[in-house]
Model the fold of this input.
Amino acid sequence: MPDPAEIAVISSVLPALTTFLLNRVERLVGPRGAEPEGDLTVPDGLVGTLGIPLHPDEHRLALRRPELELLRDGLAAYARGDIAVSAGDEALLRNLARLRTALEDVYGQYLTFAGEDRPASGPYVRQNLTTVSGQATGMDADEITGNARVVQDAQSVAPGATLTGMKARRIGP
Done:
């Protein structure tokens, strides 16, 4: 159970967080789920910079679809307003945490709200590699602004091979 200070922080951003996450899951499990989503409102409580439009990874979406549908259905009463959103509702908090984890996996971006002790919102890449024998790059863009993170774990890099975390003409604001 969170302490009173954490509950105060959670309470202040919980409605915006809930709406934002529920809107994302509705979009992903709907007919346009795999399409980039640029027409979204980023809530005030979001910390960091999201890469917009949000681009769902189609493979990750296909793998996560059953879980996303279950979470959407389990949270439907909150979405309809039948049950009030409350920081004291442990089942709600657990399911929102599960939903956020799934959404972060599908979008490849952290979704972090004010008061949380976790990486700021923004794109991330996790690569678990065995042997790199050619070239592996975590993130390659003309410009990476805001928060971006690459975590690479390679068991070995062959002679002459290249392992690059981020490659960009400009990184940061």
Residues 4-29 form the longest helix (26 residues). The chain has four helices and five strands.
